[in-house]
Amino acid sequence: MASCVVYVDELLLTNTLMNFLVLYLTGRLAGLAFSVWRLLLAALLGFLYILILFTPSGAYLYNLVGKVLVSLLMLWLAFGFMPWRRFLVVGLIFYGISLALGGVVYGVSFFFHGHPEGEKLTYRFFLPGLLATVLLAIVLGRVGTRLHRRVGEGFFHVPCRLWLANRSLELTALVDTGNQLLDPASGYPVMIVDYAVLEPHLPEEFRSWLRESGSSDPTSFASWSWSDPRWLTRIRLIPFRSLGVSGGLLVGIKPDAVEVWYRGKGVKTSKVVVGIYGDRLSPEGTYQALLPPGLIEPLFRVKEGES
Question: N or C: which end of the chain has fewer CB within 10 A?
């Protein structure tokens, strides 16, 4: 009966390294923020799954369901919660990179060593492939970051103009596919905007209400003293479950219109509500608003019609 000797230290090194590289490239290519320690924790989880397979009852876990569940848990540990559609895309990237890097390890190793004698495969046999994978991950990680930045700036970042009480302001918006907020009164999509950008264009009484009552009790606007009742009719209260809060009411305001440009073409609409966000949406200041994708869909319909 053939026997097999497995060295745990070699298995720990190779499996954890490969898991870490796959998660690292997934984060880079998907444009996700991540922590090295969380990547390492997720990589160790993958190693523990492999280690359990060597126990007497571990073979029952070595199936498609077990592999998928462990890989999804690894993604959650590495990158945290995210909208299910984005999580699906990240999962596909993860599996694609896993297959690609596995092919690199085997291909490079067999190129340098040829076919090993018998069935003996050690970490020394795979060492050239592992080194090539590390170098490839470093290069692709940098390329992925630059590519995501260029794609984000070229497509997901769009200039727009907002009209509010005979005033207009220009800003840069990020097209956020996860923004599905709707104004319950009108059914209009909600565009999230930094309060710091809106503040100079709001009347003093509106700013005072936000400072004194808006954050603690958004429903108090009806009892506030308004010199111009037109601002009272603009206020909206939008239920939400995002922006770092499990649930609550987001203060919104009805603008006169919003115009968005993409590749030289623009679309203008008044069927939108602006949600006021107290903190900065972008720490780097690259954008000041989150734009629902429905606002730019007419631009693509025009483009398809012209072609």
Answer: N
**94 and 204 together in one domain:** no
- Which pair of structure tokens corresponds to residue 44? 């160790």
Whether 307 has a pLDDT exceeding 50, the answer reads no
What does the pLDDT look like over 226-270, one tens digit per residue? Answer: 666 677 788 888 887 654 455 677 888 899 999 988 777 788 889
* Domain membership flag for residue 112: yes
In degrees, rounded to 5, the angle at the alpha carbon of residue 79 between the alpha carbons of residues 75 and 85 is 75
Q: How many domains does the chain have?
A: 2
One-letter amino acid for residue 36 of the chain: V
Helix axes 8-30, 84-113, angle to 10 degrees: 130
Q: Which among 9, 176, 183, 228 is annotated as catalytic?
A: 176
Active site residue 176: yes
Task: Name the nearest CA neighbour of 16 among 95, 145, 134.
Answer: 134
- Residue 172 and residue 139 share a domain: no
The gap between the terminal CA atoms of the chain, to the nearest Å, is 68
Q: Which residue, of 128, 154, 180, is where some domain finishes? A: 154
Mean pLDDT along residues 173-185:
80
Q: Where are the beta strands (DSSP E) in the chain?
A: 157-164, 167-175, 190-194, 235-240, 248-253, 257-262, 265-269, 273-277, 289-291
Both 95 and 197 in one domain: the answer is no
Give the pLDDT of residue 300: 57
Cβ atoms within 10 Å, residue 180: 14
**pTM of this structure:** 0.49
Query: Residue 91 sits in which domain range?
Result: 8-154
